[in-house]
From TrEMBL, chain A:
It comes from Desulfobaculum xiamenense. Keywords: Iron, Iron-sulfur, Membrane, Metal-binding, Transferase, Transmembrane, Transmembrane helix. This is 7, 8-dihydropterin-6-yl-methyl-4-(Beta-D-ribofuranosyl)aminobenzene 5'-phosphate synthase. PANTHER family: METALLO-BETA-LACTAMASE SUPERFAMILY PROTEIN (PTHR13754), METALLO-BETA-LACTAMASE SUPERFAMILY PROTEIN (AFU_ORTHOLOGUE AFUA_3G07630) (PTHR13754:SF13). Its EC number is 2.5.1.105. The lineage of its organism: Bacteria, Pseudomonadati, Thermodesulfobacteriota, Desulfovibrionia, Desulfovibrionales. It is found in: Periplasm. GO terms for cellular component: periplasmic space. The chain crosses the membrane at residues 12-33.
From TrEMBL, chain B:
The keyword Transmembrane applies. Keywords: Membrane, Transmembrane, Transmembrane helix. This is AAT family amino acid transporter. It comes from Desulfobaculum xiamenense. It comes from the Bacteria. The chain crosses the membrane at residues 21-42, 54-75, 96-123, 143-166, 178-198, 228-247, 268-287, 307-331, 343-361, 381-399, 438-459.
């Protein structure tokens, strides 16, 4: 090959190599965030899975006060090392061993109360209070859901079982849940996720009905699965793996694989199709985000009038009265989704409820009884009905 | 040519102590061990100090990065003498310079941001003031750390940009510490302006009601970015940070170093880096939409626009890791072709390696970092371990001369000449053949981009990284 040809080929390669990078970056810059690029995105193919319909859904808030002092709760988390620390090591009852912050151990804690649960919860909780940080802080989250079928039959379910044995037992008695459990009137217990305030009060349920069918997300850790055994649960344990699990006509359990603070993974939430009304969403904490929950239902389920009707539960926006601009994205956007009844509480945060009300959203107000702090949302003992 | 007219990093050459890949392997193993040890001591949520709260750890690793840049790039190791740098054992040097950087970082964070700015200027920089106003201790610290960290994000782009793109102009001829102080003050000043234009509104929205009298709320980017979150700015600023280092390392300052006129080359470099970063930013955002579907404003995590913008920055940092590794430990391989071809191959290679690092990180990091599996944990930032690792690279190469795999020797006259040749290059000249190649390359680049955006939806539908 002549020298000229070599130089020429070398120049060509220099130009081609430069052009390749420039062309790729130019394409990225000029096209990627353009309207043309987004017009290419495939439209969502809705599955419109028919999961039936029910006549109405009634929710009784057994307890939404998961803890009574934000500063103590978040202070303990902070002392332990922040929001990624394993919840079972935080040294909160019932998993306290008296060794202080971040030195908790499931096995050591359970050794102190294993023989007492679920039959002697008073003593078990008293022992744990003596070993734990801020023993008076725990409360719990739990609600009773009554689903009225199209033929008028009513089926009862529990969503979550709270945290403090003491507080939850009193709350159950206040709302008559203890008697319902004893009489096997409650069809199943759904644990929305493994967090302390939704799950750790499990013995309060198994005390009255150890055979109750139990639904949990498949992201539960070994401690959580062991705790179910240690609570003497004898019923059917359903570890949910599928995105959509039909429970009864007009009622489905939806599974979300989301990482959550303090080493919890995954949340399950409930969706209902209320005849003539539309979709009702009920959540424990809704870590997946309420609009992601709604969008998932929109993509996968068929419901009356193709309309979002109601929400109940924790929306996990400002649970510790913290804030982030992304939460305002929800406050700004929620109105476009057209929900007619918003029953929020618990980890929604007072500030969020306040902002919803200021935005003119149809937030169902509460009565602020039984240590619930605000009338801006549904408090302990309050009820909300969808479709009655 | 006198080596004292060059910075220490320019004046030295790192020579392998052993043949073949052994130095890289030894350093990689040591770096991995040191990473894991220091991660456990300082960051790991199961470890000793547990700074990964997350924002405290985030702030610390970002400011450490900037301090390393200031020490090595901007102050050229002042007040440490050149003779001390050349004679001291790398281990001693690394320890002293790292501790010096940490001390300066503490002084800056605690002294300037918390005590001065937080007490006499803007309350949210001082956690104690937020606590006094009723915000919980934990979030007071997190908010202040977030603000200080955001300032660091901007400075980590502008500080090296002034050295790399603007070539220290117009203060290049000043002696240290005058040059360092001047450039730090100037970049700090610009960082402050960019902070107010990009992040201040984000911080103002944190408080109820929106602090409309002190910041623009809702911010001007809301409609464009589909969020009021400042994560939109984190996205493009992080891309700027990464592109600065691409430009300095694997690109050898190509192609802007072909411009012979000083002011034009420097201006083109500075704004060219921003333009390339914006292109990368928009592409990485669009790529997520192609893989995961359109965002839903108001939701959280994977589908939220604010998180997708944040993830743009995270993905960009994943590119920086193999880029620096290739430059530091693989001799900026390949080197045997012309500069444009080398640059192109390195770019493609590091981009592919970034994807590999990304996949490995999300598949395995939860097994050893004390984190959780999942893309969008709201309290997890892959940038923290990645920048922590990059910081260790910098300690090793800048402060320790690549010990133990490498040692520093002074550059020869010819090698020092080459330093100048990188600033103003003459190895690519305009010709009709080059123009033809450029046209073909442009078409190929656009085709490559088109291929990628057409493959991404298939990847989203058929491949799962996190089971």
């Amino acid at each position: 090959m002549s020298n000229d040809k070599k130089v020429s080929r070398r120049d060509f390669m220099k130009g081609a190599a430069t052009g390749l990078c420039v062309g790729a970056f130019a394409g990225m810059g000029l096209y990627s965030y353009s309207p043309w690029a987004y017009s290419r995105l495939p439209k969502v193919q809705r599955k419109l899975e028919d999961f039936g319909a029910c006549r109405s859904v009634r929710v009784t808030n057994i307890s939404e006060t998961s803890w009574f002092n934000n500063a103590h709760l978040i202070g303990d988390i902070h002392e332990a090392g922040g929001l990624l620390v394993n919840q079972y090591t935080l040294n909160w009852a019932p998993f306290a061993n008296g060794k202080g912050s971040a030195k908790g151990s499931y096995d050591e804690a359970m050794a102190t109360i294993k023989d007492l649960i679920p039959h002697d919860l008073e003593k078990a909780w008293e022992i744990q209070k003596g070993l734990s940080l801020h023993p008076e802080n725990p409360g719990g989250y739990s609600c009773l859901i009554e689903v009225e079928a199209l033929d008028g039959t009513i089926t009862k379910y529990l969503l979550d079982t709270g945290w403090s044995y003491e507080w939850m037992d009193a709350s159950f008695k206040r709302e008559g849940i203890d008697e319902m459990l004893k009489a096997h009137e409650i069809e199943a217990l759904f644990i929305s996720h493994e967090h302390w305030d939704h799950f750790w009060g499990l013995p309060v349920t198994t005390k009255y009905d150890p055979r109750i069918p139990l639904y949990v997300h498949d992201g539960f850790y070994k401690e959580g699965l062991q705790y179910i055994k240690d609570c003497k649960h004898t019923g059917d344990l359903k570890v949910i793996k599928d995105p959509v699990t039909r429970i009864e006509s007009g009622m489905a359990l939806l599974k979300f694989d989301v990482p959550i603070i303090n080493r919890v993974f995954g949340e399950t939430s409930l969706a209902f199709n209320v005849q003539g009304k539309g979709l009702v969403l009920i959540s424990g904490c809704c870590h997946q985000g309420i609009l992601q929950f709604a969008d998932f239902a929109y993509t996968n389920l068929k419901y009356d009038n193709d309309r979002f009707y109601g929400i109940y539960g924790g929306l996990h926006i400002s649970p510790f009265e913290d804030w982030d601009p992304k939460y305002d994205d929800l406050v700004i956007s929620l109105g476009k989704w057209g929900f007619e009844r918003i029953g929020c509480n618990h980890c929604t945060g007072h500030l969020t409820a306040k902002k919803f009300i200021e935005a003119g959203y149809p937030v169902v107000r509460g009565t602020a009884r039984f240590r619930s702090a605000s009338k801006d949302y549904l408090g302990n003992g309050d009820k909300i009905a969808f479709g009655c | 040519m006198d080596s004292s007219s060059f910075s220490y990093l320019e004046s030295r050459k790192l020579v392998k102590r052993w043949n073949g890949p052994i130095p890289a392997l030894v350093n990689t193993l040591l770096i991995a061990a040191f990473f894991y040890l220091t991660w456990w001591i300082f960051q790991d949520p199961r470890g000793m100090m547990r700074m990964y709260t997350p924002y405290v750890g985030y702030m610390v690793c970002r400011w450490l990065l900037i301090l390393f840049i200031w020490v090595a790039y901007i102050f050229d190791f002042w007040p440490f003498k050149r003779s001390w740098l050349t004679r001291t054992h790398p281990l001693v040097k690394g320890t002293v310079l790292t501790l010096f950087s940490v001390a300066a970082m503490v002084l800056l964070i605690k002294g300037f941001f918390v005590d001065i700015l937080g007490n006499f200027g803007i309350a949210y920089f001082n956690p104690d003031r937020l606590i006094e106003m009723g915000i919980t201790d934990f979030y007071s610290i997190e908010y202040a750390a977030e603000a200080i960290m955001m300032f660091a994000a901007i400075a980590s782009w502008l500080s090296p940009s002034w050295v790399v793109a603007c070539e220290n102009a117009p203060w290049a001829k000043l002696r240290q510490p005058a040059r360092g102080i001047t450039i730090v003050l100037v970049t700090f000043f610009f960082s402050m302006i960019v902070y107010f234009l990009t992040m201040h509104s984000h911080m103002a929205i944190l408080f109820y009601p929106w602090q409309k009298y002190t910041a623009i709320c809702p911010p001007y980017w809301e409609d464009f970015a589909n969020t009021v979150s400042g994560n939109f700015h984190i996205a493009w600023i992080m891309c700027c940070t990464v592109v600065v280092w691409l430009y300095e390392t694997i690109w050898e300052r190509y192609p802007f170093n072909l411009i012979k006129t000083d002011w034009l080359r420097r201006t083109a470099s500075f704004f060219g880096i921003i333009a390339i970063a914006l292109a990368l930013c928009y592409f990485l955002y669009y790529a997520q939409d192609l893989v995961w579907g359109s965002t839903i404003r108001g939701t959280r995590r994977l589908m939220a626009p604010d998180w997708r913008w944040l993830h743009v920055g995270e993905m960009a940092i994943f590119w920086l890791v193999p880029t620096l590794y290739l430059n530091f430990y693989c001799g900026n391989w390949p080197n045997k072709f012309s500069r444009p071809v080398n640059v192109c191959l390195r770019t493609l290679l590091t981009a592919v390696m970034a994807v590999v690092v990304y996949v490995i990180y999300y598949k395995t990091s939860h097994l050893f970092l004390g984190t959780q599996k999942g893309f969008s944990h709201p309290q997890q930032f892959p940038m923290i371990p990645m920048i922590w690792l990059i910081n260790i690279f910098l300690i090793n190469v800048w402060f320790m001369d690549g010990w133990p795999g490498w040692k520093a020797v002074p550059k020869t006259e010819a090698e020092l000449e080459h330093v100048h040749a990188e600033v103003v290059a003459t190895d690519v000249k305009w010709s009709s053949t080059l123009a033809k190649g450029l046209a073909v390359g442009l078409a190929a680049g656009i085709a490559l981009y088109a291929l990628i955006i057409n493959v991404l939806p298939w990847i989203g539908a058929n491949l799962t990284i996190i089971e």
